[in-house]
Amino acid sequence: APEQAARMKKLQEQxxxxxxxxxxxxxxxxxxxIQATGEPRRRFQPMNKIERSILHDVAEVAGLTSFSFxxxxxxxxxxxxxxxxxPSDEELDAYRRGEEWDPxxxxxxxxxxxxxxxxxxxxxxxxxxxxxxxxxxxxxxxHLIGSDAAKAAARTMEANKAYGC
Length: 165
Fold this sequence. Notes:
This protein is mainly α. It has a domain at about 1-100: Ribosomal Protein S8, Chain: A, domain 1 (2-Layer Sandwich), CATH 3.30.1370. It is about 60% helix and about 10% strand. This is SPAG7 protein. It comes from Eulacestoma nigropectus. GO terms for molecular function: nucleic acid binding.
């Protein structure tokens, strides 16, 4: 039992040193990112939950915005953005879907949403549609009965006197 406790303590100290080293390495990478003028965002390699939380903390201390993306624990990664290049909601949604951000596609989606909203607004201005069937049944069966069949049948119909009509 004492050997196991000593081994556990040694592993915990080693893990603590690794975390401190990782934090220093992330601080250096973040400072390089801040000094790089042409880089609005940086994507880091997938990492585990503890490393991501350390990176988020380092980014917050540095005054940057950071987000995690990815589906499962093994493929989650962190993206760090400079404050002046903070991502829009559409950009974040694209990253969450696993797509690359394309401003032209985002503009097209925005225009389509605006067009749909305008159409919906126009429908609301017209008011509700009157209740009733959406089309005439005669139109549906025109190919079977023709357009003159009903009129011809109505003209030739005579009352049956046997039934008292």
